[in-house]
Amino acid sequence: MQDLKPGEVDAVATEIEENGFAIIENAIDEDFRREICAEIERLEAVRPGGDIPPAPFTGLVTRRWFDLLNDGEVWQRVAVHASVLAVLEKVLGDGFLLSTMGTAVVGDGEEAQAIHCDDQVYSFPRPHPNLVCNTMWALSDFTEETGATRLVKGSNRFDHDPDFTKSYETVPLEMPAGSIGFVVGSCYHGAGANSSGRDRSALTINYCSGSMRQQENLMLGVHPGRMMSFDPILQDILGFKICKGAGHVFAQDPRLEMERHYGDLDGADRYLDQRNSLHAERTSRPDQATS
Ligand SMILES: O=C(O)CCC(=O)C(=O)O
User: What total number of domains does the chain contain?
Assistant: First the structure.
């Protein structure tokens, strides 16, 4: 798709502020969508079943792969989708960060996830400024039947976090494959139940304000030499851009020292050769060891 124009970016950001969520249709070009789906198939082959064991909150038949910046190059492009970043700048302010990237491939028969907020991890009293904004990438159609994300409209303005034991009146984030949905961190939501007989294939690419700690330890999980090979925009949102004085090395852009420190490395990380073979140990799935 064409990047959103400034007026369109403002309209999406306003809708997020009003309702807690918004959708951009046709945000993922068909070739890009297929490339991401092929990469998910590759992950299924090398780390079967996802990177975390089945659990009630994250799903019993939902496959979630993480640490994606150590996988195919396509994830580096997913993280910096131009229209997404333009909207996030309005929602989270200058200096926002990539917080965590994961897949959310909800399998047939999955029950609805508990209603929660993505910024609950920070335990800030509400109301508070926007701390988090999640983006849901629909790689297949999001319908009630496939398990479209359920949302409580306007809950981003509530003065308390949701109670996991309660049920809420929700609306489904229905959108065709190729769309991206934004869900601000204070909006009550959860993945829907999937009774469609097929997967609901999606990504959750989550961003936070520059003053918050990232949920995934991206700065430690990726080899510094590899990070130095990334697009500067991706480096910025990993935490290399100074945000209101925070994040410096010698009071300068940290990339200056990173270049001196790691610049002679070619970005190769020998650990990556054995990373997939540790999958069974990480997920306690000894029957699924791969090489
Ligand atoms: O997959 C979805 O629809 C929502 C995912 C979500 O809210 C979560 O995993 O925290």
Answer: 1
